[in-house]
Predict the structure.
Amino acid sequence: MDAFRLLSATAIVVAIIFLVSFAVALSTSGCATSRVYNVPSPPCRVEIPPGFCILP
């Protein structure tokens, strides 16, 4: 039972961290890939931590 509780708590913490990073990505304009490769800002609005973009 303790292992299940620990696992669920870890999953909740990971989900919160992912949601916070996703909210930060939504609030920032441009992509990490454009900053790395010096490409003019592409028409993407979402930046996921590894640097992948979701086109609008």
